Amino acid sequence: MAKQQTLSNGAVAFEVTLNKDKILAMIGAVKSRSAALIADIQITGVSAVLHAALHGDTTYVTKLDEALGAGWYMATFRKWAMNTGVVSYQLANKAEGKTAGYVYAKDGAAKVKASYESDAAKTTADLLGAKWQEAKREPPFEGFDDVAALARIVKKAREVAADPDKSKHPKTKIDLEFISSIEGLIEGQKLARSANPSIEVEQTVH
């Protein structure tokens, strides 16, 4: 077995080695610790999120986020936490006196709280089942298509406007005549681009 070193923080690490058996042993140890860490983050995250939903206190979600350090773990956990609907993430803004961290998302938290109070076991199981490490992350930016972006907005507006249950969208404001005018612009731009494909690479930002 490779000689161990005790680091300043009390953790134990293997020495660098060229021995294949020792390298395989270290890989196995990393795999085991990684699986345990992923499971621990899930349980701790669910606990912190439920605490936030029930008590309006996001302290522990923020502390867990900070404990993960910068990088993939933090970014993915942050996406998962926001996906629960209980919290949103606030960036620091000195001018407005805001510090970086999670803030209570009243509407989403109320839903989770009501669900938990109705069936704690199911709500907890649902949160545990939504694996934090699988939280969808934003794809890398590869460019912007203004027509496609507007088309997505228009499609969503049409879907919301057609929903008979208006209580689900209390803050919605949709002017269908305005949406129709945007649809006309989109179709016109599509025709223009079909006739002149080079327009897609023109720099028209001023």
Can you walk me through this structure?
This protein has 206 residues and is mainly alpha-helical. Helix content is 57%, strand content 7%. The chain is built from seven helices and four strands. It is extended. The N and C termini lie far apart (64 Å). About 2% of the residues have low confidence.
Helix content: 55-70%
- Quick one: biggest sheet? 2 strands, antiparallel
Oligomer type? single chain
Rounded to an integer, what's the Rg over CA atoms?
A: 24 Å
Q: Tell me, briefly, the overall form.
A: extended
The ordered H/E elements are: EEHHHEEHHHH
Q: Hey, roughly how much beta strand do the residues contain?
A: 5-15%
Question: What is the count of helical runs?
Answer: 7
Structural class, judged by helices and strands?
mainly alpha
C-alpha end-to-end distance: 64 Å
Q: What are the segments in which pLDDT stays under 50 over at least 5 consecutive residues?
A: 6-10
Please tally the β strands and state the result.
4
Average predicted confidence as pLDDT? 85
